[in-house]
Amino acid sequence: MGEIVFKNICKSFGDTKVIENLDLTIKDGEFTVLVGASGCGKTTLLRMIAGIGPATSGELYIDGEEVTDIPPGKRGIAMVFQNYAIYPTMTVRGNIEFGLKNKKIPKSERDRLIADAAEVVGLTPYLNRMPSQLSGGQRQRVALARAMVKTPSVFLLDEPLSNLDAKLRVAMRTELIELHHRLKTTFVYVTHDQTEAMSMADTIILMDGGKIQQMAAPEVIYNDPNNIFTAQFIGTPPMNVHKMRDDVNYIGYRPEKIQIFRDKPTDCTYVRKVKVITREMLGSETLYKLQILSDAENEKEPIMSKSLDMSFAVDEEVYIGVPKEDLYYFDANKMRIRETDMLERLYCTTEGDK
Amino acid sequence: MTQYKKPNVKVLKAKKMASSFISTILKLGVCIMFAFPFFWMISTSFKTYAESLQFPPTLWPEDFTLQAYITVFEKLELGSYLMNSIILVVANTALMVVIMVPAAYVFAKYEFKGKDFMFSILMVAFMVPTCLTFISIFRMFAHANMLNSLWPQILPCICNAYGIFLLRQNFMQIPEELIESARLDEANEWQIITKIMLPMAKSTMATIIFLSVTGTWNSYFWPLVMTISDEYRPLTIAIEKLKGLESGLVWPNVMAGNLVLLLPVIVVFLFASKKIIASMAYRGVK
Fold this sequence. Notes:
- The complex is a heterodimer of chains A (354) and B (286).
- By secondary structure, chain A is α+β, with helices and mostly antiparallel strands.
- Chain A has nine helices and 19 strands.
- In chain A, strand 9 and strand 10 form a beta hairpin.
- Chain B is mainly alpha-helical and 286 residues long.
- Chain B contains 14 helices and no strands.
């Protein structure tokens, strides 16, 4: 069991306020991913849960219990650090055992727990090695085993994959998801990588400037973003957003929802004539950078498109179309407008292309 | 483009040989300069009095004798001096570690009011030479009625500012996450120091302890000032008395005494240097 509740949490470093009046509930047993750019406060939140970077004010509950005065070791949590924080002078076994020894767990029980954990992460042959003799991926596993063995009710992971190479990172991602299925405890995972967030999370908490921008399941965050920040943070390349011709509201559409035609389409709400600027082959898909052929100030920025059709050439003039259901509207404060009927009538259908 | 000129291999070889020859000669010279006095000391300590005065001197004793050692141990009663020296070395080093390690840890990893000020005071203490402070320390112990005992030879020496500084620098390089991780592993501060920090600072610790042990063992001035009676004096002062042991200056006696004084230092050095090399090697792997 491990539900985490933040109540009116504030945190400042010196005069800099990092987090102000934050309320948040992280559900028990879920894989929750805190995602955001550097300095958005995500690691700060994680360290609060761990008890190694207490909040300036506010209350924090784990499992319904106020933990402000409970030392880190007594909170029923385990943490995996970005640089793994493996004790370099202890063997792999020593590293995993250290916490158990401090908990005064008897030797036979310790040996059983260590054997189990080592088995799960595939470290059994390496138990007597020193960390300096291990590869990056193996060290990562030591850190995981060390956390697992404590059977915590909350697992905290601070960018645990960022020091691994790309291939290993993808493999470890799958392993972490499996680990979560196996352990069924609360996972709180911090990353700046939206792909990691999308692929692993049950719930994504997207943060910016110490505030939660949106908290939802990955598919909701992708399909139904609350604001321009969320819309552009999730998805690669980010959502194309530009001002509408009223110069107040914004319109947005995802690169992968753009359809490209040689002839002017009739069944799309949003249609523009564009010129292909660059073309990047990704294998299964092709990335086009497009310039809208328009004199309007608001459409000067190039847009990105991801298409399965690789036949369009650089400098070719083509049409793009976006269906009505794939258009997003945002107000002057960059917040999502969900009542879109009037906007659609006013700014899209009537205008068409030039 | 300039033409690549093929180097003359013979000239290069000759140059290389010449430079290695010169460097070997120089190294040898330095070795002899440092080693010869030791050799001379050892050799003289095994000579008879007559042979030690012989001219031209013999390099190695023709008449090998242990007489000088017997004289030194019998006439000087080295036992009580030796005991004092051992007590001082053990007490000074142990108490120094007890004070230095937590101090270095706190200065390296804790934030508290006045930390910088306290550390700068420590640095001042480290920089002021002993010859400036010994009079006031002497007076302090005189007022406390503690002169002429082992105390004034222990208490002023256990706060090793240099050691605290060195160890603090070492501790500062240990990543914060390791300590946080240990706290999450329910380690208390004492366990963090002994299980995490100290094993990572092995070479620094070995160096500081070695310096402290040799420093205490070799100290001459401080015990001479702080004590009057032989009862509380260490070996160094006893060796000084060798000069007046028999009528005239008996070189074999002096050298035998010196060797007895030096032996533990050499042993400690051999032991510590191994440790230092071991911990350096451990670092190299990282």
